[in-house]
Structures are given as structure tokens and as C-alpha cells.
Design brief:
Layout: H1 3-29, H2 37-61, H3 73-82, H4 103-116, H5 121-148, H6 156-171, H7 184-214, H8 217-236, H9 240-257, H10 262-267
């Protein structure tokens, strides 16, 4: 399988795994399960089972920057467990969550694509952060619904949307107070959700600041260099006319070469 076909296959596996990460927890907390879940389970099993030999053969041929990539036994075990249709077996329903081990394969595929497309790293960071935040919010909503129970006065999806609404308001520290925990188990769960929301909020602020800095790394490099130059000129008490000439010189370099030293860049090339 060539690189293009392998990329298409990995994209299919990523989409299937994402659907599994959404559908399986939802099916566990909402009963009865959707009528089409059996078909979904069969298709998911076929895709995950076929991915094992395909990935094994491709991993033997794929070359990384320094050494060949092999199909490690740990990944083989995770893929094998994910391919087992637990819902069709006489086991506890919670065993179906074992299929979500396939999310590790998604992370590995995205990282491999990330290494090949460094220029798209900004977009990939935003996409991956949004992806994991959405998945985590969905899982928290399913967990809250499992603790709270489905409201029998309304349909199952209304109960899920209410649970999702509560989780989002809690994670974003809004907390309108129209939904409150009723017992110690729910209170402990909400405390953990609040701590998770605080961590996500701090991580989001830092990530956004970092991403905005990396939108134009050349300008960030130029601005940092000017700040160092200004501090040096003030420390040495240079005349105003000389400061102006030095600043204009680096402004000229920025306009002509984006502030980079071409000789140092060319010297690092083979």
C-alpha cells in the first residue's frame, strides 16, 4: 500500500475511532441502544480487524528519520483488544470501553502526519485541542448522565443535552446553578469536573498565546531582537543618532531578509 492509500486508510480509521468514542459511551448511558448500533458494531469490528495486518505490513516498509518503524507488541495488543466486539459477547457492558484503546492509534497517525507537514502545525494544534476538548466534554456528560440517571419525564436525548449543558457551564466556570448535584457521589464528580475545567482553561489561555506567537515566527524573532538591541543601547548609553541608525539598519534587514542572518541559515544546510 503506497503512502497516499495508507493516508486515506488511516483517515478512515481516525473517523471510525472518533465515532466509536462518541457512540459507545452514549450507548452505555442511554437505553435502549439505537437500532443501528449492531450494524455500527459489525462495521467497526471489520475496520479495526483489517487495520492490524495492513498497519503491520506498512510499518515494516516505513522509514523514519533515523530508523525503521516497527509494529510494537504493545500497539498490536491494543489494536487486537479494540477489534473485539464486546457488545456481542456475554460480558459486562463496560467492557465495550476497551475498544477506545484505538484512540492511541489516532494520536500516532496525527503525529506522523504532523512530522511530515510542519508548516501546518498551527492548524493541527488547534484541531487536536478542539478534538480532545470535545471528546472529553462528551465523556463527562455521559458520566454525569450515568450518575444522575435518565429523566423518565423526557426522552433520552433531552436528558443527554441537559447533561451536556451542565458539563459545559461547569467547565467554563459559568455555573448558572439551575442544575445542582444531589448526593456526595455527584458532588465529588462535579469537583473533579471543576478542577479539570480550571486546568483546561489555563492550558487554553497558554496555548492560544503560544499559537498567536507562532503565527508569524519571523516577526516574533525580529521583535525579540529589537528588544535586546534596545536594552543594550540603553545600557551603553549610546547617542540618540546612533540608536536611530542601528534601528533603521535592522528595519532594513527585516524588509529585505525578514530579519534572519542568511549566512547562519545556509551554514546549517548539508
Amino acid at each position: 500500500m503506497n503512502t497516499t492509500l495508507m493516508f486515506a486508510w488511516e483517515a478512515i480509521i481516525v473517523v471510525a475511532t472518533t465515532l466509536a468514542a462518541v457512540v459507545i459511551p452514549t450507548k452505555l448511558v442511554l437505553s435502549p441502544p439505537p437500532a443501528d448500533f449492531f450494524v455500527f458494531e459489525v462495521v467497526l469490528t471489520i475496520l479495526f480487524a483489517a487495520d492490524i495486518p495492513i498497519h503491520f505490513k506498512h510499518a515494516k516498509r516505513r522509514q523514519d528519520s533515523m530508523k525503521p518503524q516497527t509494529y510494537s507488541p504493545l500497539w498490536a495488543i491494543a489494536d487486537t483488544v479494540a477489534a473485539i466486539p464486546f457488545s456481542l459477547l456475554p460480558v459486562a457492558p463496560a467492557w465495550q470501553l476497551m475498544r477506545l484503546f484505538k484512540l492511541g492509534r489516532c494520536v500516532q497517525s496525527v503525529r506522523r502526519y504532523w512530522r511530515r507537514n510542519v508548516y501546518q502545525s498551527l492548524v493541527l494544534r488547534i484541531v487536536m485541542f478542539s478534538f480532545w476538548l470535545g471528546i472529553a466534554t462528551h465523556w463527562l456528560a455521559c458520566g454525569w448522565l450515568a450518575l444522575r440517571g435518565v429523566n423518565h419525564d423526557a426522552d433520552a436525548w433531552t436528558s443527554y443535552i441537559s447533561s451536556l449543558y451542565f458539563c459545559i457551564t461547569t467547565l467554563t466556570t459559568v455555573g448558572f446553578g439551575d442544575v445542582t448535584p444531589g448526593n456526595n457521589g455527584e458532588r465529588i464528580y462535579v469537583i473533579g469536573m471543576m478542577l479539570f475545567g480550571v486546568g483546561v482553561y489555563g492550558f487554553a489561555i497558554g496555548s492560544v498565546a503560544s499559537l498567536l506567537t507562532r503565527i508569524n515566527p519571523a516577526r516574533a524573532h525580529y521583535t525579540e531582537h529589537l528588544e535586546k538591541l534596545d536594552a543594550f543601547m540603553r545600557y551603553k548609553s549610546l547617542p540618540t543618532s546612533l540608536r536611530k541608525r542601528l534601528t533603521e539598519y535592522y528595519a532594513y534587514l527585516w524588509e529585505q531578509r525578514l530579519g534572519y542572518d542568511e549566512s547562519s541559515i545556509l551554514a546549517s544546510l548539508p
